[in-house]
Write the C-alpha cells for this entry.
Amino acid sequence: MADFDDEDGYQGSAVLEVDERRFDVRVELRGFFQPIDGRYHWYGRIAADPALAEELSAGRRRGTLTTPQGSAPAEVGDPDPWGRFRVEGVSTPPFESWFRTGQPPASAHEGGLPEHVRVAVIGAGFGGLGAGIKLLEAGIRDFAILERAASVGGTWRDNTYPGCACDVPSHLYSFSFAPNPRWSRSYSGQPEIRAYLEEVADRPGLRSRLHFNAPVTGAVWQEADARWLVTTERGQLTADVLISAGGPLSEPSMPDIPGLAEFPGAVFHSARWDHETDLTGKRIAVIGTGASAIQLVPQLQKKAAKLVLFQRTPAWVMPRLDRTISAAEKWLYAHIPPVQRLARLGIYASRESTVGAFVKRPALLKAAQRIALKHLGGAVNDPELRAKLTPNYVMGCKRILLSNNYYPALAQPNAEVVASGLARVEGNTAIAADGTRHDVDAIVFATGFHTVDMPVAKKVWGIGGRSLDEVWAGDMRALRGTTVAGFPNFCFVIGPNTGLGHNSMVQIIESQLSYIVDYIKTLDRTGAAALDTDERAQQAWCDDVERRMGPTVWSTGGCKSWYLNAAGRNPTLWPGSTLRFRRQTRRVDEREYTRVTALSSQKTLVPNGIGAEQA
Amino acid sequence: MSKPDPFAPPAPEARLRVPSADGTQLNIEVHGPSGAPTVVLIHGWTCKTAFWAPVIRALREGAPDLRVVAYDQRGHGASEAPAPDRYGVPILVEDLTAVLDATLEDGEQAVLVGHSMGGMTIMAAGGNEAILSRTAGVVLCSTGFQGLPAASCVVPGLRRIPKTNKRAHRFLLGSSLPIGPITPISRALLKHTALGPKSNKPLQIANARIITACHPKPRAAWGRVLSDLDVSAQVSKLNVPTSVIFGTKDRLTPPDAHAQAIADALPQFEAMVTLTGVGHMTPLEAPDAVASLIRKRVQSMAEAAELAKESEL
C-alpha cells in the first residue's frame, strides 16, 4: 500500500445510478485527504458514452456510483469538450482506499497550508502544473502549489472572452509528457485547453498538493535559516525553494483613460469578461488590436448594432489554417501514441524552422508579408479601410496574428475602424486621439497584460529586504531566464527573456522546469542551503541576450510592441531557437552560483507566532 | 582571518514585511531568540537598520540574550516609500504601532530605543495607549522634540543670527539634492554634519554609506516634517522610565539646546549620559555606551515584571 501522501484510486467498469436510471460506464477515479476541510475527496471521469451524453445533457446532478469495490453518493458534472463527464464526491469513496482503514494525521497549519515545504510553487497554470508533475517525477514530494483562484488553468481559466483560442496548434501547445489524443481542432479554443489543464491536474498526487484561493501576498527571504517565508491570504508557510509560475499574461493592463469612471455603460477587460452583460444590439467600442482583440471582434460584430475598433497600430494577420481533427486521426493518436509524437514533431519542426527569419534575417519576413497583404486584400475591398489596416512595420515585430474572420468582420457595414487610440471618454462618447467622437453603450478593453513589469516582483523580497521590483528598477533581468542575483532559491517559470514569437511557450516551460529540477538536485548534491546567482554570471548572460537581440525583427522592425519596456529594451523575448534555450538550460552550472548556508540550523523565529521551534 | 567589520549588518534570524495602517510595507528584522526580552530599535533620518549594526552586536554579546527588533522607517532602507502626502509625525507613530503589533506577543512589553527621528517617534507616541501599554522603558539618543532648525549648527557661524540659521537649516533638511557618490569631500561633509571631530576613517565610511543610501525624495519629505516638528504636548505624556544619551559635539541636535528640555519635559526621566567628543550618531560612534544604557532599561523591565508577578501572588 502506498503511503498516506499518495493518492489512491480505481480504474474500470462501474454502475452509475441517476434519477432512478442505471448506466454501465467506465470510470477513472482518484481520491485524497484534503486537510483544509478535513475530509476525503474523490473525483474522476466517466469515459465518453453516446447513451450517457443523450440522457445527461447538462447541469450537475446527484446520483450513486458503484464499483466492484463499493458504492458511494456522487455528483455528476457537465461534460468536458470531449464528451466525458466529471464525477466527484466527499467522504467514503466507492473504491478501496486507506480512508476506510484509517485517516492520516492531518498536519495542517492555519488555512490548511503545510507549515513548511521543500518547494512552494506560485500559480496553477501551465507553469505551475508542469512544475508539480516534474517535481513528482524527480521524487520531490514535499511541495505545495499556491493558486489565487478556485481552479487550475491560469490564463486559460481567466480569459473567457468569446472566440478565445490559441495561436499555436494544440498538439504542440500541450505538455510533451501529457499528450492529449482528443484535441478536436488543430487550433483549440479556450474551453478545450482549460479542460486539458483540469485533466493534467488530475494526475496522481497533484490535487492533494494544490491549494486554491491562496493568493500570495508576499515572500520574504530569511537570511538566518535560508528559506522563504511565504504569506498568502489563507495563512503562511515556509519553503526552501520558491518557484514563481505566475505567468506573464496574468495581470490585465488597463490604460488610464480620463472620464472612464463616469462612463454609464459596461466597461471590462477581455481577460475579465463580464458574461452577465448582454452585448446584443449594443454599440460597442473595442480598444486594441492584439491577439485577444482579433479573436473577439468577429464574435462581437455578429451581435453588435455597431462595433467601433480603436486601433493605434494595425496588426499583421495571417490566414488561420484551422480544421477539425477527424475521428480516424484521434483513434490513431489514442492507440498508437508514436503517431501523435510524430505529428507533434512535424508541427514543432515547421514552427522552429521559422526562427531564423525572426532573429537573424527579418528580410525573410517581408516575403511572408505578401501572404498577409493578399489575405487582407481578399477580404476588404474598400481601399480606405484597407489602407487603415495595412501595417507600416516589418511583420513579426509585433506578434503575428492568425484569423480568417477578422478582416471580413471589419468589412461589414456595422463595423468601423478608428485608426487612432482612445484618448478620453465624455459621458457615453468615446473620443479618439484624432478627435473623432463615437457614441457607444459598452467599452471592451483588449489591451493586454503587464508583461514587462511582472507584478510578482513587488511581492518578493530577497537578501537585505530588497524587493525584486526595486532591484530590477524597471528593467527585469535574470540568469537563463530563471534565477536572479540576490534572490537565492527563487526560480521563475517564464522569467525575463524567455518569451517566443515563433513557437510554443510550453517548450520553454518544459526546458525551464528541467533546469529548476536540476537546481533542486544541485542543492541536494552539494548540501548547500541555498544557491545565489552570481552577479557576473547574470550580467554575462544578459549581455549575450542583448547582443543576440540586436538584429532581431523585434529590435529592427520599427514598431512599439508589448515586448519592450519603457527603456526600449526587450526584456520579454528569447532571441533564439527553442533548441538553443533547451541546450542552455539543460544543467545548472555551479560556477554561476554562490553557495549560501543557513546561519542557524537549530532554531527559527517566533514573531507573533510566526515560524516554529524545531527539534 | 581578518577581523569582521563592526559596521557590517548582522544577518537577522527573521525578516518580515508588515503593512502599516495605510498599506505601506515596512521591513522588519528580528535578531536573537524568541522568548528573550525584546528591544525595539528605531533609527533616525537618512538611516536604516544597518545603522544599528554595532549596537545589535554589542547587545547580542552580553548576557542574558536579548531579542532585538529593528525596522526601516518608511522611505528608508528596504521599507517602501509612500505617496508624497503620507509623511508626518502621526505616521511615524502608526508605523511603530504596526511594528509592535507584528513582533510582540499579547501582553509582552519591550524597551524602545530611538535615535534622532526615531527618538522623536517615541516622544510623539506620548499619550498613545496602544504603544505605552507595551513599553516598559525608553532610551532616547541624540534627539529633540521641537525647534530643530533653529538649534542646529551644521552651517558654521550662523548661530548668532538665529533667523538666518533657522532658514539655512530648513533648506538643508528639505533639500532633495543627491549626496553620493562617496568621495573624500562628501565623506568629510557628512562627518562634519553628523560625527564627532575624532571619528576614524572606517566610522566615517560607514556613516557615509548609510546616509548616501537614503533616496533623496523620502529624505527631503522627512526633512520637511522635521523642520516643523513639535511634539512638546506628547512628550509630557510619555509616562515610561526614560534614559537619554547625547554627544557633546552634536551639530544636528546640540545637547545645550535639547538635553535639558527633554529632561524637564519627561514625566519619568531616569538618567542622562553625555559623551564627550561624540557627534550626532551616538549609536554608531559609541555603541557600547548606548548598549549598556539599553541593558539597564532591560534590567529594570525585568525587575518590574518580577515585582508585578510577586504582587500578583
